[in-house]
Each structure stands twice: as C-alpha cells, then as structure tokens.
C-alpha cells in the first residue's frame, strides 16, 4: 500500500519540490498552504506522515503539533518539521510538542526522502 504524505507550507515552490521528490520515491503526496487547510485535510484523509512548516499564515506549525497530539486519531502521525527557523529553541520546542524530526531550509531533497523512508519503516515495524 502506498503511504500518503501531507506537505504543509505556504511557499508553493517548497511543496512542489517536496511533492516531486517524494512522488518519485513512490509516495502519494498531498499539500496544504495554511494551518486551517492542513487540519481539514488531516481530518479527511488521515495521512501516514506530515511534513510541516512552522511559519504559516493562520495557525503556526507549533500549534498544529499541539492540536494533533491532543487527539487520539492524529496523535501517532509522524511529523517532520521543515522550516527556515533554525534556532535551537525552535528545534527543541518543535520536538517537545510532538514532531519526530526537524529539518532546516534550505534542505537536501535526498535527505528528506531518506528520513521519510526511515520514519515510515519504523512506523510499519511497530
């Protein structure tokens, strides 16, 4: 079964780049450009993994992590933060709020694909 990944970023070029590389790696990729759109998409499609930007126009990525971790249906979805915010405080907070990994922009698409494969394989073996 093909895993579905939700890429959440308000920068279309980022979601296009993420989609291109993950689709080439055999995943189904859906995108959202805002926090509200992301939460609606998650509720409807329940993706296998989420790639999340922190700086979104309405609901920030930290709040999305908190919201998802509070609900039983979404608490176990792996979240990878992909953000230009590269401070140790931001990384610590993101991981504390439930993200399983944190990558900074600019990012290596190859590294992103490798991490996604690894995280999904861990989820399948659990």
Keywords:
single chain; 126 residues; alpha/beta; Rossmann fold; 5-stranded parallel β-sheet; 5 strands
Question: What's the quick description here?
Answer:
This protein has 126 residues and is an alpha/beta fold. A five-stranded parallel β-sheet has the order 2-1-3-4-5, sandwiched between helices. Helix 1 crosses helix 5.
Number of strands: 5
Radius of gyration: 13 Å
Strand content: 15-25%
CATH topology: Rossmann fold
CATH superfamily: Response regulator
Between the first and last Cα atoms, what is the distance in angstroms?
Answer: 16 Å
The number of distinct helices, counting runs of at least 4 residues, comes to: 5
How many domains? The number is: 1
Low-confidence stretches: none
Can you write the helix and strand succession as a string?
A: EHEHEHEHEH
Averaging pLDDT over every residue, what do you get? 95
Question: What class would the helix/strand composition place it in?
Answer: alpha/beta
Bin the helical content.
40-55%
Q: Describe the main β-sheet briefly.
A: 5 strands, parallel
User: Rough shape?
Assistant: globular
What spatial order of strands do you see in the largest sheet?
2-1-3-4-5
**What multimeric state do the chains show?**
single chain
Broad CATH class:
Alpha Beta
């Amino acid at each position: 079964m093909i895993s579905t990944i939700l890429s959440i970023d308000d920068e279309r070029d980022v979601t296009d780049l993420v989609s291109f590389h993950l689709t080439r790696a055999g995943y189904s990729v859906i995108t959202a450009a805002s926090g509200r759109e992301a939460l609606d998409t998650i509720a409807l499609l329940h993706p296998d993994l989420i790639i999340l930007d922190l700086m979104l126009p309405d609901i920030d990525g930290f709040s999305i992590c908190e919201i998802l971790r509070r609900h039983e249906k979404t608490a176990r979805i792996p979240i990878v933060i992909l953000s230009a915010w590269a401070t140790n405080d931001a990384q610590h907070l993101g991981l504390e709020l439930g993200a399983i990994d944190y990558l900074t922009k600019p990012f290596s698409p190859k590294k992103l694909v490798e991490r996604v494969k690894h995280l999904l394989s861990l989820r399948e073996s659990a």
